[in-house]
Write a structure and sequence with these properties.
CATH topology of the largest domain: Umud Fragment, subunit A
Number of helices: 2
Strand order of the largest sheet: 6-7-11-8-9-10
Helix content: 10-25%
Strand content: 25-35%
Shape: rod-shaped
CATH superfamily of the largest domain: Umud Fragment, subunit A
Radius of gyration: 32 Å
Order of helices and strands: EEEEEHEEEEEEH
Oligomer: single chain
Largest sheet: 6 strands, antiparallel
CATH architecture of the largest domain: Ribbon
Length: 232
């Protein structure tokens, strides 16, 4: 059987990080192998003693590290990044699941703002979350999303502006914070699709087709990198 031990009389120590390891004897069994792994502040260092040869290698090629083995060196930031990435994924999945349930029930709707009529309160690329008027009553100061119509009643789009006057009976006076004058239309309750309850900055910029073509492969690539580092 082979033996590995530290001795000050050895002539050729093998350095493993900041640790010096002396291998003094070789066994009488040629096919015997010894795997030695040392973990210190510089990382994990492994040698395979095979017969008369001493080879530097990686422990992960032969054995799976036990849970109690300390994480050192570059593995620290790899594990930390992997943990943070995993928990961020869990949080994102929880948020998306919660929003899906609320959206399916009609409690909350989301839309991406495309214009700057509400700058600086709401900027292009922000996502607004709205809830129906049955949940929150529109009033002066509220930001509402309403269906804009031509004089003949034809719908032309949805606008998100602030109520500055009027009432539900005669119609609300609405105006974009950045616009110089109020809107021509005075929307009533049937025209209001929801009251803005929350604004998520910037996320809408990453939901365009061009942005998704970049972000989706990037996220997938990062996942592959972290997975490879974790298994290294």
């Amino acid at each position: 059987m082979q033996k590995a031990m530290k001795s000050e009389s050895a002539n050729q120590p093998h350095r493993m990080g900041s640790t010096e390891l002396w291998i003094e004897e070789t066994g009488s069994v040629p096919e015997s192998n010894v795997l030695i792994t040392v973990s210190d502040e510089t990382g994990e260092h492994t040698y395979l003693i095979a017969g008369q040869k001493v080879l530097e290698t990686k422990a992960s090629l032969f054995v799976q590290a036990p849970e109690e083995r300390p994480v050192v060196g570059t593995r620290i930031w790899v594990r930390s990044a992997s943990t943070a990435f995993r928990w961020a994924g869990y949080a994102l999945a929880l948020v998306l699941l919660s929003f899906s349930v609320l959206s399916f029930s009609g409690t909350v709707k989301a839309r991406v703002v495309l214009t700057g009529s509400m700058v600086p309160t709401i900027n292009p690329g922000d996502i607004i979350l709205t809830t129906p008027t049955t949940n929150v009553t529109p009033k002066i100061g509220s930001i509402v999303a309403y269906v804009g119509r031509r004089f003949d009643g034809t719908a032309v789009g949805v606008f998100s502006h602030r109520i500055i006057g009027g009432d539900a009976k005669t119609g609300f006076i609405v105006k974009g914070d950045h616009n110089p004058t109020p809107d021509t239309q005075h929307p009533k309750i049937p025209d209001i699709t929801g009251v803005v309850i929350f604004v998520i900055p910037l996320i809408g910029r990453f939901l365009t087709p061009k942005a998704l073509m970049i972000t989706v492969p990037l996220i997938f690539g990062l996942w592959l990198i972290f997975d490879a580092l974790k298994n290294d």
